[in-house]
Amino acid sequence: MKRTLLVFAAGLLACCTAVAQRLPGGASPDHYALTININFPANSYEGDETIDLKLAKPTKTITLNAVEIDFHDVTVTAGGQAQTAKVSSDEKNEMATFTVDNELPAGAAAVHIKYTGHLNDKLRGFYLSTYKGKKYEVSQMESTDARVAFPCFDEPDYKATFDITAIVDKGDTAISNGTIVSDTPGPRDQHTIKFSTSPKMSSYLVALTVGDWKCASDEVDGIQLRVCTVPGKENLTRFPLDATKAILHYYNNYYTIKYPLPKLDQIAVPDFQAGAMENWGAIIYRETALLIDDKTASVGTKQGVAETIAHEVAHQWFGDLVTAAWWDDIWLNEGFATWMTPHPLEQWKPDWLLSQGVVDGTDQSLSGDSVKNTRPIHQEAETRAQIQSLFDGIAYGKTASVLHMLESYLGHDTFRAGVNLYLKEHAYGTATAADFWNAMARSSKKPVDKIMPTFVMQPGAPYVGVEAKCEGGSTTLNISQKRYFNTPEEFKQPNDQIWQIPICAKGVSETGAGQQQCFLLTERQQKFTLKGCSKFVFPDAGALGYYRFDYDAAAMRQLGNAVEKGLTPDERIALMGNEWALMRIGQHNVGDYLALGGQLKNTPGSVLLESFGNHLNFIEEHLVTDADRPAFQAWLRGAFSPVLQQLGSTGRPDDTPEQKQKRAILFEGLGNDANDPEVIQQARTLVQQYMKDPASIDPTLAGAVVSVAAHHGDTELYNQFKAQMQKVKSPQEYYRYFYALADFSQPVLIQQTLDSTLTPEVRGQDLYILIGLLGNPVSQNAAWDFMRQHFDEIMKKTGGGLGGVGVFLYGAQSFCDTQKANEVQQFFEQHPFPGTERNQREAIEAINGCVELRGQQQNNLAAWLKQNGNSNASNGDAASVGAVR
Description:
The protein has 885 residues and is of the alpha+beta class. The chain has 32 helices and 30 strands. The strands form eight sheets. The protein has an eight-stranded mixed sheet with strand order 5-4-8-2-1-11-14-13, with no helix packed on it. It has a five-stranded mixed sheet with strand order 16-17-18-20-19, with helices on one face. Strands 28-24-23-30 form a four-stranded mixed sheet.
């Protein structure tokens, strides 16, 4: 499952308060025959289900998962005898037990169930979605919601095949995992659609959507492809079809097991909690994650949609073909899909420079993993809430980063061979962490089974200290390790954790870089030899190491601009991220970070500039005093206005994706953080032009223009945005205006936006706008007060889902105030959210960490700004080079 960005990045997923436990065992399913008769007027459906299963021993009871199900009749057949079963429901544990009078023999049995289910408004199980007054049935089963849709053995290890039949109204159709094998009239004024038998799969992968879907088709490698949507949006399907063709073809060549189904449907639905869900053969997306108007979509939007498709299609192998045996190893699904995502896209769109995104992803994962309240990749979980909390930045981002490091260490072909061995050994079954690293070790003949457990079974990230000394024409590296924490006090504490770390290093001199060499650090401290001698040793050559590192700052300072010759763009991104980490623990100061960023800001690609810009925004909001803000903004203008002027403030026909993205980053940063009057005026002019004719503005720049205009906008512009939201023709345009509503600063407009979240005007899936309002310093207090006052309404609107608890958990991290930390603590005490205790501690730790960083670096920033705040662009660059430590 691809989680929506705001929640996924923070690793804070909301969950319901139910405390479902694991099944007692004794029965295992082989096959489900499931017929669903949709009744839209009643918002319900009738279910007719037969489960073929095996009983491990004689018994009078069969227990499976079921919740919010109204049972009518249950019959159990075994040993040639059919018996009517009594049903007892355990709502707390989300189970139902069927009891018969006569003991059932061990072996084959069949359970026939007639029941009524409800098309709920909680975005789980079989649920109700609407668009322009038309009702749709949509499914979402992961992780523990198949039991809401139909009685089943709702644990990933209980794999079975499925025959699904849908009885739907005339004018509607149905989409499921299989292909349609028959579509016959009746009963009454309905028609009956039967699907082919699914592969053997877990219950959470079952898909069924019903409505007047309109589909566009294509084909690749003999596989039928469709992208389906509500009527009127068929014109937004060409890009996702083209992306899917490239992605699926790549995977079919990468894996020795080809995609095993004859078709792959992808459905964009109006209401969906996650970004997308990898149901085998029938992937479901929220509209913004799949549909694109190629003429009005930005480079980042295209890249985001392609990445989501690549992630979900990768799941057809990692998650669907081979499934984690239990949720404690969900990283085997999510981390692998995240790791695989850039591989086909780098081949399809090389000008997107996706390797830079991989490096930035590692930096973000390291940041999230540097707190006390992080967790190991492998994490025990039993309840619904505990399971949901595992779909976080650790399962996705950290795992992917560790796999990128391992792939770099082993080599592409060796890693690929290990992956294919793992898939071959566990196809159509389940697997554990040990299954993966044992297969990789056997295939590669490398100690993967020793390396991986140190990153999977313990929390946190390593910090690598490096001392380099030239001896006899070679460089002796004395390398040490300890755990990295992002506060000085925690970092200085003794810690006994040890990793087995693949470390790659290279020497850098005025003339360039030496050859990369890799070592395996297995002890607290070891010595290695690097060929040749050079002034500076970079300890993350290739920029794929999952570790923070120290380096000889004086040696790098002596190299001056030669650093840019010796380090690739990817390595410069890693260096910048690491510099921020060193600043967090007080080894360097914020001025060093600003100086290095000023030096490297022209790095090819847009990722370094974007990451730098995000940190500049953090500094502007949390570290700069009101007295120092004019000097900081002057430095920003002096450093970045010349870069924007060189690019041009509006698009050019021959712009590369890199140039488009850089222009947008610079425009938004100068307008919102630097308060540049020229850019602000341009935004006011361009936004009016864009609203009249969206094609007149480069789509990548449009988002920045809308943001800056809103940031400095008034009531008239706010009302114009609201009007535009009713006119736009693509999801991206709608949300461009929608999320910009959180950027306005007038109290009356802030309140208007807050109030709208509780009305039908804002869908439950879109309450992430509250996070934007919490992140805006001007609206933060009003948003926090509103959310606490309307907690019950927010939870009801989201069904207790991702937009509910997650909004509070992640949104709270926007604070940088001791009083707010106390208020958040009190809020969590009043609203415990069982299963999210660690996430709550993590949120409070983030607030306190920000407060501590401000106390540590605010005076350093003030001193640096006195020297650099009024520098013009050229002087600023000169100062930057000289100030690098």
